[in-house]
Amino acid sequence: MGVIAFILRIYRIDATSVDRAVTAMPANPPTEPMPVLAARPRWRDMFASLKVPNYRLYATGQIVSTTAQGMQRIAQDWIVLQLSGNVADVGITVALQFAPMLVFGLYGGVIADRYPKRRILQVTQTLSALLAGTMAVLIFTGSLQVWMIWCVALIGGFGTLVDNPARQSFVSEVVGPSLLRNALSLNSSTFQLGALIGPAIGGILLSAIGGGWSFGVNALACLGTVFALSRMDPSKLRPAPKAPRRKGQLREGLEYAARKDEILFTLIVLSSVALFVYTLPVLLTAFADHVYDVGSSGYGIFNALVALGALSGALLSNLRATVTLRTVVVGAMVLGVVQSLAGLAPQIAIFGVLLVGAGMSQLLYFIASNSLVQMSTNIAIRGRVMGVFVLIQLGGQSIGGPLMGWIVDSFGPHVGMTVSGVMPLLTASVAGLVLLKRRGQSVRTAFGARLWRRSGSPRAGR
User: Fold this and answer.
1) Domain Major facilitator superfamily (MFS) profile spans what residues (predicted)?
2) 26: which residues sit within 8 A by CB, 6+ positions away?
């Protein structure tokens, strides 16, 4: 429970009460059934959730918003590198963007459980539009400096710590339980596709007409998301029960996450992936500028290759019948292997092919981990549990950004890329061995079997 214990220390929560609660509960508490797919879905059912009008609006806003944010991120990172000439400064930008999540992230989950999620998203997207518009003006007027980018990144981080838990848990309110599994997959696909395709488009714009336009496009996209949310039919939503104001709500979310293997071990593996893998844009700036000398256009191509792999991963993820701990652990191991090999690539062509594999494996892993946590969590506490998930996912990047920047500056991009793959590979391997031991299995007896899978259907936590 190292991840949960670390979070408890940050928030000064009494770990003794959590330990007592966890010890008093069975390792695998009873759960309430959640409708999931019992067989591999057909291709024609891949987009079943889009039959829901509210979800069509939500998904459209999601893909437009995340794509524009990816465009902005690529422009932001490259502009920082050009202004300062230091990869470590790019890492600092990433750290500031996600630092509020690391310090206050769990409170974002409490807010998501306490207030209407659609209203929260409208407010956070409006804030994002204002910040992006401000950056565009600073760039077009030629007055932008690195410290200004850092300030905007930090302010935007406070919006993110509320936006992400609300965004993640809002999906179940839009589609209901019968389509939740499909909606979670589509939602994760659109989110990650936007985050990966956006940088590819942003790289092209960056080399063609400059980075300011990416910020302007993001401002308009955020306002478009606000409009899409306002067009939803509130009577068709299925709002979760609001969490009342009382003490101990943070502790409740942590206790819940700590006592369920599906959530706890997913978070442990996620912590390593977030720390090392999700800082890939920092690494790609170094490969484009220092290794292959391909400039901003090459940087855009690298991101386009990652996006191509992500698109393939999105299609494959929607054909999964079930998601288990085995899916998450093995997926992280595969991701680690692919990214490690990219660090060892002897030439740019092989590096490009491995970037496609990295994008595919990254998206498959993220969708599996996100879906497993949500399907294992009761809807009344889902916002707080997803707050922990997002805290680790984005907070890890606030540490990983400057860490990977330092590794690249000190030891070179190849070492940085290799480390970014080896660390999650080791973490997932150790997590897998611990799970086998907890369940009385060995690697030899478990090989070829369906590891870590519960008998019967996957279930949602009580």
Assistant:
1) 54-439
2) none
Window from 72-81, 112-121, 172-181 with minimum mean pLDDT: 172-181
Residue 192 has pLDDT above 70, yes or no: no
Instruction: Read off the pLDDT of each residue in 81-92 and give the average, rounded to a whole number.
Output: 78
Using DSSP, how many helices (H) and how many strands (E) does the chain show?
A: 17, 2
Please report whether residue 312 resides in a domain: yes
Torsion 18-21-22-24 (CA) sign: positive
CA dihedral 397, 399, 401, 405 (to 10 degrees): -160
Reported pTM: 0.65
Contact criterion met (CB below 8 Å) for 161 and 32: no
Whether 91 is covered by a domain: the verdict is: yes
Q: Is the pLDDT assigned to residue 399 strictly greater than 60?
A: yes
Closest CA to 206 of 129, 132, 283, 139: 139
Q: What is the pLDDT of residue 457?
A: 41
Cβ burial of 187 (10 Å; 0-12, 13-18, 19+) is buried
Lowest mean pLDDT segment, chosen from 195-199, 283-287, 336-340: 195-199
Which residue in the block uniquely carries the two structure tokens 């997913």?
Answer: 266
Rounded to whole angstroms, how far apart are CA atoms 166 and 115? 9
Find the mean pLDDT for residues 237-246.
67
Asked if 162 contacts 111 with a C-beta cutoff of 8 angstroms, the reply is yes
CB atoms < 10 A from the CB of 322, how many? 20
pLDDT, residue 1, reads 46
| Token output for 326 | 């085995």
Q: What is the DSSP letter of 459?
A: E
Instruction: Give the single-character DSSP code of 31.
Output: E
How many structural domains compose the chain? 1
- DSSP-assigned letter for residue 179: G
CA distance 418 to 349: 17
**11 belongs to a structural domain:** no
How far is residue 221's CA from residue 216's CA, in Å, rounded to a whole number?
A: 9
Specify the length of the chain in residues.
462
The residue range of the domain holding 62 is 45-451
- The pLDDT tens digits of the residues spanning 402-421 come to 788 888 888 888 999 999 99
319: domain CATH number?
1.20.1250.20
DSSP state letter for 184: H
Tokens of 62: 């999601």
Q: Is 67 within 8 Å of 198 (Cβ atoms)?
A: yes
Query: In sequence order, which ranges of 85-145 are alpha helices (DSSP H)?
Result: 87-114, 117-140
Structure tokens at 63: 């893909």
Domain contains 68: yes
